[in-house]
Amino acid sequence: MSRYQSTELTIWSRLFLLATFFAVLLPLSAHSTERANYKNWDEVIAAAKGGTVNWFMWGGADNINQYVSEYIGGALKQRYDITLKRIGINDTAEAVNAVLGEKQAGVNDDGSVDLIWINGGNFRTMKQGNLLFCGYHDLLPNNQLVNWQDQSIANDFGLAVDECEVPWNRAQFAFAYDSARTKNPPESIPALIEWAQKNPGEFTYPAATDFNGSVFIRHVFYHAAGGPSSLLGDFDQQKFDAIAPKAWAILNDMKPYLWREGKTYPNSIANLAQLFANREVALYFDYDPAIFGINVENGIFPETTRSFVLEDGTIGNTNYVAIPYNSPNKAAAMVTANFLLSFDAQFEKAKTNVWGAAPAIDIDRLTEDQRNLFAKLPRHPSVIAPSVLSAKALPELHPDWISAIEKGWQYNVAK
């Protein structure tokens, strides 16, 4: 989950109940059968011409808004005669609620939403409520650039994508340190546990109520489980009960060596950033590694800040775009999703002066010239190379796992 989608998990259960209610009461459309109306990509392009795509997406970053409205919107208009309307929202749930309301009202063919920037709990709500258009990946020429063998792409927070959404951006957890202060930062969870004991007071993590704090706790949970593979899929209470005590024991054993002896935890990742900036702690982490360079450029972090990924991996997830089942402009939405996967769109997005976002496509599947262009992109010295980071990506868990881990930490560690 990116910082732009972090509120999703707090509302997924409410939305899921609504989606289930509507799915039971209302007749289900054969959503994915519409895919058969297009025999090939040329037919999709022809049907998309002159269409309009209402893209509902988080609108809190000016650079992202500009990239979508000007670059993506301009290219779609010029190349395909598609009009892109970016609908800025504060929370992805607003778009999900719009589709839910339309389904309740029987609006099954002429919905107001054509595309949603989505992942995590909101995707689960829409998928389980039969609110998504699915089964069209093989129509998209640029789908060949996606590595669907990568479980952090094929599964959206532990839920199989099943051709119901298209990746367009990636986020992954990474650590930062001041190289002038810390010469050998710990590069695995076991090493971090040992390092914290040898450097008391120089490490801490936000409470589980903060998304970055929660994801750190999940890394410890993965370590206690011997890796994430046995945790993927639906929540398993028996597995949780077997693994959780080991994780709580590790975190409780660390408490005396944390900042302020673990008697309190930072409330947010912003608080941890301030502690790092003030040299109160020696390590920082974030789900958006680009922030390391941004904080250096803004004079918050020292110029000697450097970042790294754990050798045993760090959790990554993918942001997607999804087409609601009742979009009246599915062809235009598919063309938009396909263009978002293109080299042109992914390369533009990766430029540090545009967004600096990690690509959702597999760079190794590009041409040699295209790979070289990615390799030559300027990168802030404080920011880890995306290729190094992605090579150590670990998948996210199902929202039910995350909820149980967060609640368990509050009860067994925080108290």
UniProtKB/TrEMBL annotation:
Pfam families named among the record's database cross-references: SBP_bac_8
- SUPFAM superfamilies this protein is in? Periplasmic binding protein-like II
UniProt xrefs under Gene3D superfamilies? Periplasmic binding protein-like II
Its domain of life reads: Bacteria
InterPro entries membership: SBP, YnjB
Question: Which PANTHER family does its entry note?
Answer: PROTEIN YNJB
Q: Which NCBIfam families match?
A: PRK11622.1 (NF008633)
Protein name listed in UniProt: ABC transporter substrate-binding protein
Q: Which organism is it from?
A: Sneathiella litorea
